[in-house]
Amino acid sequence: KGEHDIHILFGSDAMASLRPLYSHFVGKKAVTSSKGDAIKVLHKHNGEVATLVSRASEKDIQEALRLGSLAEKPMKELPSFERKKILMGIASDLNKRSEEFAQALSVEVGKPIKDSRVEIGRAIDTFTYAAEESIRRGGEWNEMDISLRNKGFRGITTRFPVGLISMIVPFNFPVNLAAHKIAPAIAAGCPFVLKPSERTPITATLLGEVLASQEGLPNGAFSILPTNAEHARFFSEDDRIKAISFTGSPEVGWKLKAAAGKKKITLELGGDAAVIVDEDAEKLDYIADRIVFGAFYQSGQSCISVQRVFVHEKIYDELKSKLVEKTKKLKVGNPLDEDTFLGPLITENDAKRVEEWVNSSKGKILVGGKRNGSFYDATILEGVEPSSTLGCKEAFGPVCYLVKFSNFKDVINKVNESAFGLQAGIFTSDFNKAFYAFDNLDVGGVLINEIPSARVDSQPYGGIKDSGLGREGVKYAMEDFTELKIMLMKNAGVLE
Q1: In terms of Cα–Cα distance, which of 474, 459, 447 is closest to 179?
Q2: Run of H or E including 17
Q3: Closest to 465 in 3D by CA, of 261, 302, 267
Q4: Which DSSP state fits 363?
Q5: How far is CA 367 from CA 313, 419, 472, in A?
Q6: Is 268 tagged catalytic?
């Protein structure tokens, strides 16, 4: 790997190689701060310093904003085929370096290596899909002679890039969630500045290396800026920023919206996702496998992690037994071990928070419920008090709880009692119940015969209520990153 690499041992067979220091990027150029000012990135399995990432200063951020603003014109003028070429180049380079990205992801997030590889694969898909969308810019032809007063009017509408975009990415999916902001920005012709989480900045800087190697990308088109929380305001308040794309907590997201002023903003803020298993649901073993996966994948640190499981009373006991037995078999351990399913939470404090929420929920623990440092057991409860913190907040940990129901309409109303509304899953073989759920659930996405934790990277993805504003998914994010414009024509094509 090179004489300057750090070899991080997680066990007899689990090892990752990292450099001692990673650069940040200002206007497409790599910049390295002093080691004394760099961000110390911990590997989440044992809490030791894994590597250092260069920290962007206030001066760096201001320069990035200046260069990004200057790059608006050359980015807007990039031909569609050039945007496609750039995005395909990113996807290709990401594929070539996929194992490097996956190992860094496992170290900085604590994500099991198999899941890390899946995330990198999804990011490759996202950039590839964006390359396809970049050449599909279209519009509409409108007959505008709606009355005698408007006789002779016709119109053409199409979309134009909004300008400099600010992106703020969380710790849990630092590669694919960055891809879901970067890819549509390039496809739409917008420069951007990106702030990764201080906890997980390694893969963002690796993305910066990939972006910087794309010859057609104009100077100043992007900046990757790992920095202090005190500098976060520069990513929302500066008037040179035309749009903001934020993924993170509701508390931060709504404050960001209040500070954004006239800027366009997209917020993806999470939720307490519910799944309903109706009495006519088939293949309970399969359903149990999917719920266990959805609740405990990446230690529950996903905004669409299964948190609430509503089960019809006729099958409640049978499904409960299957869920408990399958959960007991999950392998806990080193993120870089190939057979690990459950890794650590992002910090020990987060594990302590989950422990406190479970213990104060007044629920009966069916399996799990123990903490060991930053690890928390995959935990299933029943009888959780709805007014408890676990009963009404996003757990963001490996915890779900069961609720028995008897009437389908009533359970739909129960799901809607949440302050969140991102996605919900329904297991049923009744066509009419599936459509009733789609018509009546207050969420951004309804998944039939699947858990709410599934996401297709081309779908419109986002929620309502406290789950956010706007939609991700390349095609839909491009709408947020562009403005609609009309050209009205009087008597076009008329010959005297």
Answers
A1: 474
A2: strand 15-18
A3: 267
A4: P
A5: 20, 27, 35
A6: yes
pLDDT in tens, 373-419: 999 999 999 999 999 999 999 999 999 999 999 999 999 999 999 99
Q: The tokens 């917020």 sit on which residue?
A: 267
With contact defined as beta carbons under 8 Å apart, do 469 and 257 qualify?
yes
Q: What gap in Å lies between CA 134 and CA 482, rounded to an integer?
A: 12
Evaluate whether 95 touches 124 at the Cβ level (below 8 Å).
Answer: yes
pTM: 0.94
Give the containing element (helix H, strand E) for 209.
helix 202-212
Q: Which pairing describes strands 423-427 and 445-448: parallel, antiparallel, or unpaired?
A: parallel
**CB under 8 Å to 255, separation ≥6 — which residues?**
none
Percent of residues, the chain, with pLDDT higher than 70 = 97
Neighbours of 83 (CB within 10 A): 23
Residue showing tokens 């929302």: 236
- Ordered strands of the 482-490 beta sheet: 139-143, 153-161, 482-490
Q: Round to whole Å and give the CA distance between 5 and 17.
A: 6
**Per-residue confidence (pLDDT) for residue 11, from 0 to 100:** 41
Structure tokens at 328: 């007991």
Query: At how many degrees (to 10) do helices 202-212 and 176-188 cross?
Result: 30
The predicted-structure confidence for 293-350, as pLDDT tens digits, reads as follows: 999 999 999 999 999 999 999 999 999 999 999 999 999 999 999 999 999 999 999 9
Token readout for 315 is: 């099958």
Active-site residue (options: 133, 303, 355, 400): 303
Q: Which amino acid is at 174?
A: P
C-alpha separations of 449 from 75, 222, 286, 425, 433 in Å? 42, 40, 10, 7, 12
Q: CB under 8 Å to 272, separation ≥6 — which residues?
A: 307, 308, 392, 393, 394, 395, 418, 420
The continuous run of DSSP H or E covering 154 comes out as strand 153-161
Identify whether 303 is a catalytic site residue.
yes
Give the CA angle between residues 111, 117, 121 to the nearest 5°.
130
Q: Measure the CA–CA gap between 102 and 98, rounded to whole angstroms.
A: 6
Separation between Cα atoms, residue 265 and residue 477, nearest integer Å: 11
pLDDT in tens, 52-90: 999 999 999 999 999 999 999 999 999 999 999 999 999
Token pair belonging to 246: 């934020």
